Amino acid sequence: MSSVHLDVKVTTGESGVVTIDIDQRAGPKSTNEKRNTDYQWRDHYDLLFGNVKGRTRLIKWDEVDDEELRKAWGQGEGDMHGWKKFPEDQELLHSHVESTDSDWIADQVWGFDEIDGEKRHVRITVIRKGDAHTSGKLVYDFVGS
């Protein structure tokens, strides 16, 4: 097992589109992904996931209409296990990705949450293939600059 390190750069263009450029390293392997929040389809090759197409946008929590994403975050499910609910005005990144090599689809919501008093970068993912689905939550230490 190895740790994952994300180096994230965020810029905003003249048109207001936010670009998130991520260099991701796990052990000796690294990959780069770029997300533009204009919700336009883009093709991408990823070392782990292969050929995919995806689109990204900024949304508020009340705009998350995927019940599985909401469940995966734990919103509204009683015991939050140290998690806080999002402030209503917090922008989240919503990403929709489809494999072009296989038949899976993934939806993600990225945001920040306070967990046991510490700010963390959190990503929740729901992956669907046919009628089956699974979900997961990644929690990253956050070191701001």
Structural class: mainly beta
Q: Could you give the count of β-strands?
A: 9
**Rg result:** 15 Å
Range of helix content: under 10%
Overall average residue pLDDT? 84
What does this structure look like?
By secondary structure, the chain is mainly beta. Helices cover 5% and strands 59% of the residues. The chain is built from one helix and nine strands; from the N terminus they run βββββαββββ. It has one helix spanning 67-73, and strands at 4-12, 18-26, 29-36, 42-46, 50-60, 91-99, 104-115, 118-129, 132-141. The strands form two sheets. The protein has a six-stranded antiparallel sheet, covered by helices on one side. Strand 8 (118-129) and strand 9 (132-141) form a beta hairpin. The longest helix is centred in the middle third of the chain and has 7 residues, at 67-73. The two termini are 27 Å apart.
